């Protein structure tokens, strides 16, 4: 084991990567997200021994966006089992942008390639048990409360409605999949559940704790309580490796080599067996929708701790 990491050392790394924020751009296709400060930066690491080190604006809250897709997948699998879920969404990386509709037309039946792209994540939200969007999101929030040990986490209503009002592409994906019977029922209700799920607000310490639970094969590190079955934690981490960074998953695997999931808010969740969980926030995004500084920072961390799983 390397020398203990101090918050000062972590601050120093943030100073090194901060200038890279200028190479990217804050997401503005969800209007409210466009107000984020591109220079904001935070990181937290939750080590397997329970120690937490954080630096930067680590109390700043941001929305999970696509990071929610990993936790929603875990819940849909708990609710329905693997056979049901994977009959409706595939297990293969797409190599396409996260919002692409292209592959849906190339496969019959037109099920989405994986649960991390928007098409797949919409099907996953649809599969979460609950009579109403609120009930589905409430159940997802309960799982997140268990994973973070913070029962005050809620979704940001302003971000949710900002996305709901402008999510024409996600509506198109849902209508296409409804035509092909991959989803049933109300498109608006599924979109409502999905946009609320994406708007759940956390900070980097919450993310690091979630990553640590995945790294600890589904068990809470502090209490030893099992939150997810081991095989579900493994499935989630595998999707994070193969699809977590969308069409940048290959280069990320080479440069960083850890299970990770990004969101257009600029957050990244990392999880490494035997090491712990990592949460990063830096809203300036590259052209693939991944945090520019987040990726740089994860590369530094991976080199420092020899984290690559490959
Ligand atoms: O559906 C969307 O477009 C957003 N709510 C989430 C997309 C996202 O986070 C992609 N990640 N990098």
UniProtKB/TrEMBL annotation:
Enzyme class: hydrolase
Top-level taxon of the source organism: Bacteria
Catalysed reactions, as listed in the record: L-glutamine + H2O = L-glutamate + NH4(+)
Keyword line: Acetylation, Hydrolase
InterPro entries: Beta-lactam/transpept-like, Glutaminase
Similarity remark: Belongs to the glutaminase family.
Protein name listed in UniProt: Glutaminase
Gene (name only): glsA
């Amino acid at each position: 084991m390397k020398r203990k990491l101090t918050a000062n050392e972590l601050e120093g790394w943030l100073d090194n990567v901060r200038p890279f924020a200028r190479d990217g751009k804050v997401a503005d296709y969800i209007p409210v997200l466009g107000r984020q400060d591109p220079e904001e930066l935070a990181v937290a690491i939750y080590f397997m021994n329970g120690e937490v080190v954080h630096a930067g604006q680590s109390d700043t809250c941001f929305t999970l966006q696509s990071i929610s897709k990993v936790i929603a997948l875990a819940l849909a699998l708990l609710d329905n089992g693997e056979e049901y879920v994977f009959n409706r969404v595939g297990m293969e990386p797409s190599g396409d942008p996260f919002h692409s509709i292209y592959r849906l037309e190339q496969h019959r039946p037109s099920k989405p390639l994986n649960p991390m792209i928007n098409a797949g994540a919409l099907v996953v939200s649809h599969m979460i048990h609950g009579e109403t969007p609120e009930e589905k999101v409430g159940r997802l929030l309960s799982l997140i409360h268990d994973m973070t040990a913070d029962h005050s986490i809620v979704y940001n209503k302003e971000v949710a409605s900002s996305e709901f009002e402008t999510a024409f592409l996600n509506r198109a994906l849902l209508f296409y999949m409804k035509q092909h019977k991959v989803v049933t029922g109300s498109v608006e209700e599924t979109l409502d559940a999905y946009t609320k799920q994406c708007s759940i607000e956390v900070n980097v310490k919450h993310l690091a704790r979630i990553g640590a639970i995945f790294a600890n094969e589904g068990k809470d590190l502090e209490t030893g309580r099992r939150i997810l079955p081991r095989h579900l934690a493994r499935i989630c981490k595998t999707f994070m490796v193969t699809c977590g960074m969308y069409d940048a998953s290959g280069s990320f695997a080479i440069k960083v080599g850890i299970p990770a999931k990004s969101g257009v808010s600029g957050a990244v969740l990392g999880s490494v067996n035997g090491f712990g969980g990592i949460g990063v926030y830096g809203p300036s995004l590259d052209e693939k929708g991944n945090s520019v500084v987040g990726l740089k920072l994860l590369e530094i961390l991976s080199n420092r701790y020899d984290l690559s799983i490959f």
